[in-house]
Design goal:
CATH architecture of the largest domain: 3-Layer(aba) Sandwich
Largest sheet: 10 strands, antiparallel
Number of strands: 28
CATH topology of the largest domain: Rossmann fold
Number of helices: 15
Distance between the termini: 16 Å
CATH superfamily of the largest domain: Glycogen Phosphorylase B
Structural class: alpha/beta
CATH class of the largest domain: Alpha Beta
Oligomer: single chain
Strand content: 25-35%
Amino acid sequence: MRAILAFSFHPAFTPPKSGGEERLFFILKGLSQYYKVTLVSFTHPNKNNTIENVTHTGQFKEVRIPKTDISLFLHYFVNKFSSIPECSAVITSIESRFNQNFKIFIREELQKTDIVIFESPFLYTIPGPLLKGKKIVYNAYNNEFDLMKPVFSNSLIGNFFLRYVYRIEKNLSRQSDLIFAVSKEDRNSLINTYHIGPKKIYFAPNGIPVALYDPIFFNRSGNKNPPVCLFIGSFHPPNIEAVNQILKISALLPEVVFIIVGNVSHFFTHQEGVTEWCRESEKTFFENFKDVHLIAGFHILEHWDKTPIIWSKQVSEISISEKIESLSMRVYSPQNQTIRVTGKSIDTIFSLFIGWNTLTIPVLSPCKMIFSLSCEKEYRDNGRILGIALAQMDYTKKGEKYIVDLNICQNRISRFIASKNVFLLGQITDEERNDILKISDIALNPMMSGSGTNIKVLGYLSAGVPTITTQMGARGLDLIDHKHALICDIADFPQKIRDLLSDEMLAESLTKNGHILMEEKFNWESIVKDMAEKIEGI
């Protein structure tokens, strides 16, 4: 079996949390049916600067290179002297030129492969002699230079980054033996920007694992009272712009609830005076939104080597949904002490010893509740008052065991102060996303800029949520207006929302036809099979 060495500036997280992560993971996982695939990516720094090895399948492994102080310094410099909201891809690209772990690993690994895939151009920083004799494939998610121009061209640092990205993307585009573009628009853009021949560029659209959305498609209810419009987006400038458009739309539709899901929320929640916390109970569909939620008395997430840790204060509170049958926690206590757990039908004292302890909290009668954890002693460290360190939580629901993702269990629902019908959920679990998709009446995609195709639209249509999108947001997806989705200008969104909420036959038609289109044209399995044939031909 031939080997592929792939490069990405971010890891192949599982499950994927953004469109870019989905494309990276599902394409390489699919290609591992035909090739032995090794992905080299960059990840967060760690104390010992150790490389992380991840096995996704028997033929798909990932090597994650920790970033160094180079990235930390560059992020600090950019944040201090510019208003660029997100530039981790460019900074990781610069880091790769100096990172010793990266240099040593690729020098050894490139000797074992004859096919190299660059997932975006940012790690095309490898010295030319090391790539001599290799077949080079560029899997272009966007025309990165074009995508960055609107945001980066307004500052000295941004213009430097633009010139840098133009150079590496031009070199990669011209020296590649094969290029995959996600849309016909992107294909033409790459040809015109970098003056490359069209014969080596093939169409490989973004896809979706449609079968994973069938449980949503066949069990959707919508909400209707009040109606719910959904937008999903990562921390990405075009998504930030889209949320600003939703704020304008929401002012004309005060009777509609707008829900924003994904890390794009952080752009707004981190600005003082823009958003406010709200309780889940303020809207009935949020009441059982999270099974487990750290709601008070906890410090921010930190890492002990690679392990996520959340310190509690001396007194803290956790909420659990009515679905939970049992809850277990692995905690670190800095001293010998007791901890009292109290709540509805719960009043238990546990003895803790210095080091790691496991607490199994009895849930005698499953119901929605908030319980309090009160440590006997406080522990002071660098001015912080600490109780216990939480390293793992798992719970049972309907007889099945679930592990709580500590990276997002502190997320709280927010809403805009000036637009109280627009709620921000932040990053959520797949199960929570599925619950939101089930109760959403309409999905929105008010994109004004960007490149590539919007994977969020594939998710909307696979789940059967009637969708309203701009022409920009529909690029590369072969959508027909009023058959698969409603396609219109931003100014027409408010009326289209009203039309769709009042016309059940139209909503049902969009739901059915959109799902069929996803099954026929956008299943990852058929997309990757075609890509493998093209790779084999170079």
